[in-house]
Input
Amino acid sequence: MNPQEFLNIASYLYNLSTPQLHTSPEIIRRTHVNRAYYYLYHLARKETIAQLEDKENFHNLPEWLNKDHIHLKEKFRDHKLLRHFYEKLYDETNYDEARKVHHILSRYNIYRILADYHIDTCNPSIGRYRLNFQNPNPQNPSWKELTPPTLQKRGNELVESICNLFSNRLKNEDTTLYTIITKIL
Output
């Protein structure tokens, strides 16, 4: 499945002025936020796996992971593990691209948690992140992050950061990556 399809659904829901279904605008907004997160998560997951399995970038890493029965497609199904991977990668390398990927995924995960798990209130918050699902304010910084053009921009930033990180900064750093991956997985 192409992660872009999640963005297409999120954009459709964002632009839905009157619900076609017999449901509240609040659930449409919550579902939009959920799909927005999954767009970014699946995009990052797909690109990360592609980069780590690229034998042009890493001659030994794919073989080492296979030998140890570490299957990235399985492991990175865990959202927290993918975010944790980039957090640890930043801690070990201090590369801004790793910090950026971790930050984007973590921020949108908070939005998803607000949408999916704080259903007992229409105006939930976690730290500085607040989303009013009943009466959204387009000037709210969190809602600005959820517009379709901003989501597309964040997706592009994720892909660019991941590609630059693995194709340039960490190219041929099989041992460094293997150590980090085996520590967290």
